[in-house]
Amino acid sequence: MFTTILFSQFQKSPIQALAKLSAFVVGVSLFASGCAPQANNNATTTSTPTTATSPTTATKTDSPAPSATGVKLRIGFQKSATVLFSLKGKGTLETVFKAADGTVTWSEFPAGLPMVEALNAGAIDVAYVGEAPPVFAQAAKGSTVRYIAYDPYGVEAEGIVVHKDSPIQTLADLKGKKLAVQKGSNAHYLSVKAIESAGLQVSDVEISFVKPSDGRAAFEKKNIDAWAVWDPFLAAVEVDSGARVLTSAKGLAPNRGYYLASKEFIEKNPETVKTFLNELKKESEYVKKNPAEVAKFLSPALGVDAAILEKAEKRRDYDILPLTEEVITKQQDIADTFARLKLIPQPIVVKEAVWDWK
């Protein structure tokens, strides 16, 4: 049985800092317009394993069962979160938790911001998002969001594209041009860093805040001159329209992914969190070594050509790692940048929201 969690249920939560930004992400489709069906605006929850078959169907695991019996793990995910989606397809976590009379519930979200809002509101226990949503979550009053691990993801997996016949050849050429990006996303941070690296002010570029599906449509109609976006949206527009990558995130932004959990869940179930991370680690190793097989598995579920997904998979990285001082410092720079741009209500100290694996 499926239960629909309306995003509007979270709009009255203490997370007022996200409220305005959420309007930009509600209704975000999994993939660009014309490439895949539009995503539902809601978070859909199910406590039963998906019927999809992953590349490796075996559910055997060497991980110990959660230490506390009867633990209910509620996971927030997006279909583009390859590791979680693969785990969901195999039913691996369900097998592990069943051994301790526990359950696993999956809630699908259209984007990272509504997911961290749900995490802060206590509707889910863990989530996987890009580098920007945790900043907004932590800046919200009464935030309980904690970083539990990071995923390297990769600097080539996001970028700023221009039309193949565009006269724009350098970042400095963006002056006076129209750039589209999803507000509060990792690509938003990339856009700011890219513009400033060219000696320009953010105000020198006409920035439009749009969700990926609308960005794709605007780009194809040439209503915008450039588009900042991430994979697989990036790979698709390159393949489908011949878009030229003006710059990737290399040297500009880390483009990491983060696994998050609520403070309450960590305190009550620290060993369960470790079990969860252990399963993620094993699955990360698998998908990293099998990009073509993973792309074929994801293709029918995402409605995206396998060749496009393979292109995206081959240029990203996977792992489950504890946050280091270097990672925290870079995440702090993202937070400081958003505070300077007044995208969050006040400055934050990222380190205060990092869970110590020890």
From TrEMBL:
Organism from which the protein derives: Pseudanabaena mucicola FACHB-723
Main location per the UniProt record: periplasm
Region (Disordered): 39-67
Biased composition regions of type Low complexity, renumbered to the chain: 43-67
Alphabetically ordered keywords of this record: Signal, Transport
Annotated family: Belongs to the bacterial solute-binding protein SsuA/TauA family.
Name of the protein in question: Sulfonate ABC transporter substrate-binding protein
Coiled-coil stretches: none
CDD domains associated with the record: PBP2_SsuA (cd13557)
PANTHER family in UniProt: ALIPHATIC SULFONATES-BINDING PROTEIN-RELATED
Entry's localization field: Periplasm
Cleaved signal peptide residues: none
Cited SMART domains: PBPb
